[in-house]
Amino acid sequence: MRLTVLGSATPYPRPDDPCSGHLVRHGTTTVWLDAGPGTLAELQRHTAIDALDAIWISHLHADHSSDLLTAFYALLYADLRPAAPIPLFGPPGTADRLRHYLTNTEPGPVERAFDVHELHDGHECAVGGLRLRSRLVEHGFPAFGVRVDAGAVSLAYSGDTAPCPALDDLAAGADTLLCEADGDAPPAGVPRVHMTPEDAGAVARKAGVRRLILTHVAPPLRAGAAVERAAAAFGGAVEHAAPGRTFGVGPDTS
Question: Which residues form the Metallo-beta-lactamase domain (predicted)?
Answer without folding.
Answer: 30-216
